[in-house]
Design goal:
By secondary structure, the chain is an alpha/beta fold. It folds into four domains: 4-206, Rossmann fold, CATH 3.40.50; 217-370, Rossmann fold (3-Layer(aba) Sandwich), CATH 3.40.50; 374-438, no CATH class; 456-572, RRM (RNA recognition motif) domain (Alpha-Beta Plaits). The chain contains 24 helices and 20 strands. Helix 4 (53-64) packs across helix 5. Bound molecules: adenosine monophosphate.
């Protein structure tokens, strides 16, 4: 298997996809990327959603765009607006480190005027559903004369939906010399006709057998201390605002406990286990089937009676005792050609089990990083924006009220109104996560949950411990999450403190370890240093500074109990995406430090 680098993917794109967790190319990417990067060969790829095809065409197309030319150079056609938004979103993520690259989703059911405005401002990539694109062509608001790359995604689906003529018309407007790529799950006659008419000696690629349930499932584990399992669960649920999944617990009691906590914390959850009567179980299952419940907390046995095809996630709240059960649990997602993710929240001692499961399912797990508060805010915010875009407006119902609303907001520009709508949600979220405690990822070598005491030479490696020292009198010993691996030495560390802390600070003892370091500063300066340095970046890595445990006179930053709130208040997570309104002023207690976590764009 080749790496993305060996396939010729540029460094700035690799950086973005690495942050998204793409370590190695998926088969379709390995096959397709070299053709698109290499020459002008047309490609027909028989592959389905979930095989990684968006990146297969997206990465090379992004790489080949001439940023300086502010005209449409790539056209991606797809059947539905959901897919259109998904592709455009993925391309934006992949191009995080390409400045001035503009991708425009163009689809029916949303304001054509705003799409025309964006086209006038200039875009390089258009992702479109055929019908809306034809509208724009007819209004002469889109110029396809510079298009060099055309992708037809889910071509068979487009034809099923009656877009054959539209596709014909669109392709006749695109220059002859373009490179064309067609993705389809099947190869009906109509597709063959299109390929014959519009493609030149296309290369045909077939990616495995489609719709193999388990192949559509991504396996991810998050390793946390036992005490943080529930907080981690909430963060994961918050990070996927549209999650629709089953959370598997081992016992009936745990199932009920977790469901109760989630409900109390404002999540749309319920429980399913053997202590409920059959009538109760039927009722819960029915609510879940019709999506009235987003998160179902269940035991393995009780969930057997439930047949639902569209789960986005399965969450293992701890791994099952019987490893075979893992296969059954994870097989509940990624069905019917859809993709799914099987998430396991595990304790360090379960690492061995992960390896055993990998052998049985013949697939590697990815290790996930608990999303930071910022990443969650960003995700939730864009979900809000998405909902604003897609909301069905009931014109009749609100037409009477609208004139007075328009009058009231008349003094505000459109941009101001958008800012205010977004701020309504965003302020609350950012306040909520700002001061939350972090969720540590225990080191593989030693976890405080382990009963075994570390060997002496490992003792100073346990995260954030003071490295076995206490600070000089009047000084606080601070932990910083960079060390020798990051090329840090005492001089560079002092340089960083000077760079990031506005006033001069005396630095006492410095201890550089492999992956982290300690340094001492006067007590009075400790909080200032922590505040100024945390969240800064050093060689692309987010810095985290806090008082080393047991190592200083200052209080640990973001320590529990800091806000005078009760434990249960502070542990409360944010409400579900559509229900953020009524959050109390309580502070959560789970602030994670995801490496390279992205800053919200609307800060
Ligand atoms: P797609 O078929 O493009 O919808 O991709 C299916 C899923 O696989 C999406 O969640 C992608 O983010 C993910 N994905 C695509 N390529 C890779 C990769 N190389 N490594 C890990 N995940 C990937």
């Amino acid at each position: 298997m080749k790496t993305f680098e060996e396939l010729g993917v540029a460094a700035n794109i690799r950086k973005a996809i690495e942050e998204m967790g793409y370590e190695n190319p998926m088969p379709v990417q390995e096959e397709v990327i070299p053709y698109l990067l290499g020459d002008t060969t047309d490609v027909i790829a028989l592959a389905q959603t979930g095989t990684g095809k968006t990146a297969a065409f997206g990465l090379p197309v992004l790489q080949k765009i001439e940023i300086k030319e502010n005209v449409p150079q790539a056209l991606i056609l797809c059947p539905t607006r959901e897919l259109c938004l998904q592709i455009a979103g993925d391309l934006s993520d992949y191009s995080k480190y390409i400045d001035n690259l503009r991708v425009l989703p163009v689809y029916g059911g949303s304001s054509i005027e705003s799409q025309i405005k964006s086209l006038k401002r200039g875009v390089q990539i258009i992702v479109a559903t055929p019908g809306r694109l034809i509208d724009l062509i007819n209004r002469k608001t889109v110029d396809l004369s510079n298009v060099k790359y055309v992708v037809l995604d889910e071509a068979d689906e487009m034809l099923n939906m009656g877009f054959t003529e539209s596709i014909d018309e669109i392709l006749s407007k695109v220059p002859q010399g373009r490179q064309m790529l067609l993705f389809s799950a099947t190869m009906p006659k109509e597709i063959a006709k299109i390929t014959k008419k519009y493609m030149q000696s296309p290369k045909e690629i077939t990616i495995g057998r489609k719709n193999e349930g388990s192949n559509n499932v991504k396996h991810v584990y998050y390793m946390v201390h036992a005490k943080d399992k529930y907080l981690a669960l909430k963060r994961i649920a918050d990070y996927y605002p549209n999650i629709y999944g089953i959370i598997f617990c081992r016992t009936r009691r745990e199932t009920q406990e977790i469901a109760d906590k989630l409900i109390q914390d404002g999540y749309n959850a319920d429980s399913l286990h053997g202590d409920l009567s059959q009538a109760q179980r039927d009722y819960v299952m029915q609510k879940f089937r019709i999506h009235n419940i987003q998160l179902l907390v269940a035991t393995d046995v009780a969930a057997r009676g439930l047949d639902v095809d569209s789960l986005t996630h399965v969450i293992n709240y701890g791994l099952p005792d019987d490893i075979e059960s893992y296969t059954h649990r994870s097989g509940r997602t990624g069905r019917a050609g859809k993709t799914g993710t099987s998430i396991s929240i595990v304790h360090v001692k379960e690492k061995g089990k992960i390896r055993e499961i990998e052998k049985i399912i013949n697939k590697k797990f990815e290790q996930g990083a608990i999303p930071s508060g910022e990443a969650i805010c960003e995700k939730q915010l864009f979900n809000l924006v998405d909902r604003i875009e897609k909301v069905k407006v009931n014109e009749d119902e609100i037409s009477n009220l609208l004139p007075s609303v328009y009058r009231k907001l008349d003094w505000l520009e459109k941009e101001d109104i958008i800012k205010r709508v977004v701020a309504l949600e965003f302020n609350r979220l950012i306040d909520y996560y700002r001061d939350a405690d972090e969720i540590e990822t225990p080191s593989d070598r030693f976890s405080r949950d382990d009963k075994s005491y570390p060997r002496r030479k490992d003792r100073d490696r346990s995260d954030r411990s003071s490295g076995g020292r206490t600070a000089e009198k009047g000084y606080s010993r601070l932990f910083i999450n960079i060390g020798r691996t990051d090329n840090v030495n005492p001089a560079t560390l002092m340089g960083l403190v000077n760079d990031f802390v506005p006033e001069k600070v005396n630095i006492g003892r410095i201890d550089i370890m492999q992956n982290f370091s300690f340094f001492e500063v006067p007590d009075r300066d400790a909080q200032k240093v922590i505040k100024s340095m945390s969240r800064q970046e050093q060689n692309g890595r987010r810095i985290s500074v806090e008082v080393a445990q047991g190592g200083g006179s200052g209080e640990r930053s973001g320590s529990r109990g800091g806000f005078g709130a009760s434990r249960s208040d502070r542990d409360r997570g944010p409400r579900r995406n559509s229900d953020f309104k009524s959050r109390s002023s309580s502070k959560p207690s789970d602030k994670s430090q995801r490496k390279g976590g992205r800053k919200p764009k609307f800060s």
